[in-house]
Write a structure and sequence with these properties.
10 helices; 8 strands; 67% helix
């Protein structure tokens, strides 16, 4: 007796140890890990940063442009001196310097371009959201495929415990001669079949978990120790407002195309700018030591010249090229507007299908619960008859399989409802 107690305690301890080693993953944890590890999403994040850095703010658009120019040149040869009408040498060194500053005081093109570039940043964010949304839907499907198998495995193991109990009982009864040996063979066959099913389901579960963690690009884990968390049905709420990233992206593209029309039109509008320029030069005759010239500093100061003014640039005629560009931009904006309608239709159709599936599963739920209740009642009576030998092993096995199938159908229907609610939330707003 003490030996049996020690063995029981050993197995209980091992059971607690194994449970302690389990690594439970929720759907949200899988998605969060996936978003951190996905390379495509990292690329999209860098694209957002690139677009932000590339955008010129309105302040940058109106800041002055300042340029400093300098040149040094040499003239060699001769020329006619008008005072003597004789030829003289013209070997001279010239140094020219000027500083130029220009600022647009009124530039409609710069204003529209700044607004368009701001929309481009939002488009880059929306495109990242589209990648995330498609990725989340893939993870959701992979997660629930593995979760279906995990819950089926739990049911199969519970049924296997019952079969092992009956196997032990029949073995004792065969040994005492109260049951024929053929009953033992029958229960052994059923036990082997159920053990095979458990092994096959465990193998499938391992493959599906491996596929899931490959999808989320996470390898620092022991797959066999992973268990998946089943969400409570009451915790799954359905979003009502539609903020699908594809629709948002289509709307932003339409706004940007409208800005493109305004940008092309702004090329026909005047540009008012202010400018300031200061210049000076230095010259020195070459190979003429008898010629006296002022120093570099004196010449630069004496030859200094400044200019300040306003400039108005009014486009008059450019061969109607800009009108063609405006018409092309209008057509692109019309295409973008139709794209919004197209994306709205796609999302509405997806949600309509999922809503019908949801209603179908809800309609089945009550009937499946009813079937399960009858299956349990049938199993209880069959189990009692099986114990006293009124039914054979095959009838008992058939009834037990009915219970297994009914339990799995109820569970799968519940998980399908969770899956559809999560999927509809992702389609609507990219959130669980």
């Amino acid at each position: 007796m003490n030996k049996k107690i020690i063995v029981c305690l050993f197995f209980i301890t091992i059971s607690f140890f194994v449970k302690g080693q389990e690594n439970t993953w929720s759907l949200q944890k899988c998605i969060d890990t996936a978003l951190e590890n996905n390379i495509e999403i990292k690329i999209r994040q860098l694209e957002i940063k690139r677009t932000q850095k590339a955008r010129n703010s309105m302040l940058n658009e109106i800041l002055p442009v300042v340029n400093l120019f300098g040149s040094q040149s040499y003239n060699f040869g001769s020329t006619i001196d008008p005072s003597t009408n004789g030829r003289v040498s013209s070997n001279i060194q010239y140094d020219n310097f000027y500083l130029n500053a220009q600022m647009n005081l009124l530039d409609f093109n710069a204003i529209v371009n700044s607004k368009r570039n701001k929309i481009s940043i939002e488009i880059a964010k929306a495109e990242k959201e589209i990648i995330e949304n498609e990725y989340k839907l893939q993870i959701l499907e992979s997660y629930y495929q593995a979760l279906f198998t995990q819950e089926l495995l739990k049911i199969q193991k519970e049924q296997l415990k019952n079969t092992i109990f009956n196997f032990d009982r029949i073995s004792k009864e065969v040994n005492t001669g109260s049951k024929p040996k053929s009953d033992l063979y029958d229960i052994q066959f059923n036990l082997s079949q159920e053990e095979k099913q458990v092994i096959e389901t465990e193998q499938l579960f391992t493959i599906q978990k491996t596929q899931l963690f490959q999808l989320i690009n996470y390898s620092n884990i022991i797959i066999e120790n992973v268990s998946l968390e089943k969400a409570l049905a009451s915790n799954v709420e359905t979003e009502k407002e539609i903020n699908n990233p594809k629709i948002i992206s289509a709307k932003l593209n339409y706004e940007r195309d409208l800005k493109e029309v305004s940008l092309q039109r702004s090329n026909n509008l005047p540009v008012l700018s202010a400018f300031y320029q200061i210049s000076s030069f230095y010259y020195k005759p070459l190979n003429q030591p008898d010629v006296i010239v002022d120093s570099f500093n004196n010449q630069m100061g004496n030859n200094k010249n400044q200019q300040v003014g306003l400039q108005l640039n009014i486009p008059i005629l450019n061969g109607f090229k800009n009108n063609r560009k405006i018409n092309v931009a209008k057509i692109e904006s019309e295409k973008s507007n139709l794209k919004i309608e197209q994306e709205n239709q796609k999302v509405a159709q997806q949600l309509e299908i999922e809503e019908k599936n949801k209603q179908n599963y809800l309609a089945l739920q009550k009937k499946l619960d009813e079937v399960l209740a009858f299956a349990h009642a049938s199993f209880i009576t069959t189990q009692a008859k099986f114990v006293v030998g009124k039914v054979d092993t095959f009838i008992y096995s058939s009834v037990k399989n009915n219970v297994l199938t009914s339990e799995y159908n109820v569970l799968k229907n519940d998980l399908q409802l969770q899956y559809i609610n999560f999927k509809m939330n992702l389609i609507r707003s990219n959130n669980l």
